[in-house]
Amino acid sequence: MRNQPKYHFLKNTSYALHGLVDIVKNETSFKIELLLCVILIPYIVFYDDELVYKLLLFTSLFGVLLAESINSAIERVVDLVTLEHHQMAKRAKDVGSSIVFLSIVLFLTTWGSILYRAF
Question: What are the boundaries of each domain within the chain?
Fold first, then answer.
C-alpha cells in the first residue's frame, strides 16, 4: 500500500506550493537562479523575434529551475537516509549536481546561439 493520500487537485497544488516556498527559503542556488529568471523574463517578453525563439529562451531558462528543484530533492532524500559520508550518497548528490550543470550548459548554449543570431 502506498503512503500517499487520495488525489485531490487543491491539496496537491498546495503541496507543490509548499515545496516551492520551501526551496525558495532554503536553497541559495535556487534564489540566485530565480533572480536570474526575474531579470531575463522581461527581456524575453520584449525581445523582438519569432515566438519559437522566445519559447526556446524561456524553456532553457526555466529548465535551470527545474534541474535545481530535482537536485534539491535528491540531496534531501540522501540526507534523510544518512548524514554520514557514504560513497553511494556522494554519487547520488553528484548526479543531482550534474543535472543542474547540464541544464546550465543548455541554457548558455540556447541563449548564446539565439542572441548571436540576433546580433
Answer: 9-118
Instruction: Name the catalytic one among 27, 33, 68, 75.
Output: 68
* Active site annotation includes 50: no
pTM of this structure = 0.88
Class of domain 9-118: mainly alpha
Who contacts 104 (Cβ-Cβ below 8 Å, separation ≥6)?
Answer: 64, 67
Q: 71: which 3 cell numbers? A: 537536485
pLDDT tens, position by position, 11-62: 889 999 999 999 999 999 999 999 999 999 999 999 988 999 999 999 999 9
pLDDT tens by residue, 71-89: 999 999 999 998 788 899 9
SS3 assignment, position 1: coil
